[in-house]
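Homework help board

Subject: predicted structure for assignment chain

Our instructor gave us this sequence and asked us to write out the predicted structure in C-alpha cell form, then describe one feature. I got the C-alpha cells but I'm not sure how to describe them. Can anyone check?
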Amino acid sequence: MKVVTLGVHVLDVLVRPVEAIPEGQGATLVEDIRMTAAGTAGGTALTLAKLGASVQSAGAIGTDPTGDMLVQLLGAAGIDTRYLVRRTDTPTSASVLPIRPNGDRPSLHLLGANITYGPGDVPWDAIAEATHLHLGGPELIGVDTATRILSHAKEHGTVTSVDLLAPGALGSFEQIEPALPHVDHMLPNEDQVLGFTGEQDLAAGAQKLLAAGAGLVAVTRGGDGALLVTPDRIEKVPAFAIDVVDTTGCGDAFSAGFVRGMGLGRTPYDAAVLGSAAAALVAQGLGSDHGDFDLAGTDAFAATNKPRA
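My C-alpha cell output:
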C-alpha cells in the first residue's frame, strides 16, 4: 500500500497537565513537554507508517527551525518528505497545546505555510502512482485546488480519502461540495459534518455528503465512537474503553486506521474498528505519535479490549 498524505502539516508543542495558565509572570511545574509532527496530513502519515503503509507526505512548510524539526520527526518515522515544499517567506504551521488533566486540548495555533499550497506544488506523478491519496484540510487550500487534485487521483485509479480541519462553525457546504464526487472515503468529525452541511441531524448530514458524491462517510464522535454511513446502511462503531491521556491526533489516527483497513480489503465496518483501535492507542499518551504499535498489535488490541459502553 503506497499512500500520499497531502495537506496540513503542523508541529505540535504539547504541555501536560495544564489546569490554568499562570497569571502575570507566574510559573507552574508540569509533568511533560513534547514536540510532535501533527496535522490532518502529517498526523495521519505517522499512524499509516506504523500500520505498515509506505507513506509520502506533501504540503507546505517554512525554511525555519520549526520546519526542520517537522521534517526530522516525519523522517524518523519512516515517512518520505521529499514532496514537502519549503517557503522562505512564511513560517511553518505550529500549535501549542496545553493538555488538561482529563485529556481535553485547547489550542494556540499558527496557520503558517499550509494555506500557501497550490497546484504548482502538487506531486502529480506521485499521486498517479500511489494506491491511495489522503487529503487533509481541503478547505485550507481551496475547493478548486482540492477538486483538481482529487480528480487527478481518481483518473489514475488512486483511492481517495478526505479529512477536514476547520471546526464546523467555520465551515460551509460550498467549501467542499465540488470535491465530493471525487472522494471515496469522507472522514470528518461530528462537529464538521453538522457545520459544513448545515444539518441538525448527524445521519442527515452524512447522507447529504453521500448525495453530493462521496462514496462513504465515517464520522468520528470522540468517546462515542464512529458513525459509518454508506448508501446501504448506517452503522455505529463503538470506541474502546481506555484511560485517556490526550486526544491530540486521535482523528488522524482513526483516518489512518480506516484507510489502511480499506487498503487491506476489509469491510468498511472492520476498517472503522481498526481506526478506532489506532485512535485508542494514540489517546493513551501525549501527542499524535504516541504508541509503539504496528498493524498486528493494533488488531490484537481491538480483539482483546472492550468497547466503551
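Reply (TA_rk): Your C-alpha cells look well-formed. For the description, you could write something like this. Residues 2-20+31-304 form a domain with the UDP-N-acetylmuramoyl-L-alanine:D-glutamate ligase fold (CATH 3.40.1190.20). That's the kind of observation they're looking for.
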